[in-house]
Amino acid sequence: MKNNNKGENTICTHEGEVVDKQFGGSVSPIFVSTSYEYINKDISRYPRYFNTPNQEALCKKISALECSESAMIFGSGMAAISTTLLAFLSSGDHILLQKDIYGGTRNLVEAQFKRYNIDYTFTDDIDLKFFKSAIKKNTKVIYIETPSNPLLKIVDIEKIAQFAKSKNITTIIDNTFATPIIQKPILFGVDVVLHSATKYFGGHSDISAGAVAGSQAHIDKIWNLAKNLGGNLSDYSVWLLERSMKTLSIRVKAQQKNAKRLAKYLSESPFVKKVYYPGLKNHPNHNLAKKQMKGFGAMISFEFIDKIDPSLFLTSLNLIKPSMSLAGVESTMLSPAETSHYLLTEKERLSQGITNELIRFSVGIENKKDIIMDIEHAIKLSIK
Known about the structure:
The structure is a single chain. The protein is an alpha/beta fold. Helices cover 38% and strands 14% of the residues. It has 14 helices and 12 strands. Helix 4 links the parallel strand 2 and strand 3. Helix 2 packs parallel to helix 9. The chain is globular.
């Protein structure tokens, strides 16, 4: 585990910069070459080896934020997830996954793992007892996601990590919704941390990327497969991502501040039936979230009463964008049943509590009153 005493704003701003030795510029230069000299060099650089100057530098920023020894950057969140899972699983192995996870991850497991003779189980619920009861002799990996997508369930990271270590099982977590600004799973004993860097790391809805952080031994294992699968990120996108991450802490804290206020507003609305946000005291995992998170994040999900048409509401928004993905500086809303969890069957979605009426709200940095005005305007236009 890396010990970095610098503040997070400082890490975001300065860690992992490429020093401009030629001109002394204050911004990292871009090295876009796909061919590097190898004779009399300590390292053979190649984009697919994840070790170009910009790639290496950005990984230092990510590992510093996650308090890990090392990190890697990928072309998408799913590239990071699929490569990591396949790096730790072989034919005949078993993986235990939390029931409530991103739909793309679940689809990857259900659609592809049988082809590789990899056995899998989804837990019945998120408490430790459900993980314990589903373990098999050949379980090699436990995979969790907290806060979960889209119902913001909170898993006890430390308990899961301690249990996995007692069984010599590798733990992997999707930390996308929290970001290392709010939650550092490695400090709770998790082995490998994943991110869809498309989301908060990028923060401006214009970069597709994925990230993984962990010990040097774990990252080496992932790299051995990744270099063959070729899921690296272009250096121009790496440079854009490094620039975007300079404001990660500022953005996330501003979004989180808005989310806390908006969750309270939605919970008091007569048109809203239920709000899912760990910052609300009636959230079943509120106290656990307080223990392992620095705040409660900027994602909210909610359901309207039957009087409101959810589809009409989404199309009636003006300021908030009814848009795919999440975590940009602009507020967005979507229907998980039609987007992030579309690949699941209706039965699978409903078993997770993902109804057709559920709306996922990615809170941006706009003024709170403007967001509320937009929501109230759309509600008036969507009353049945």
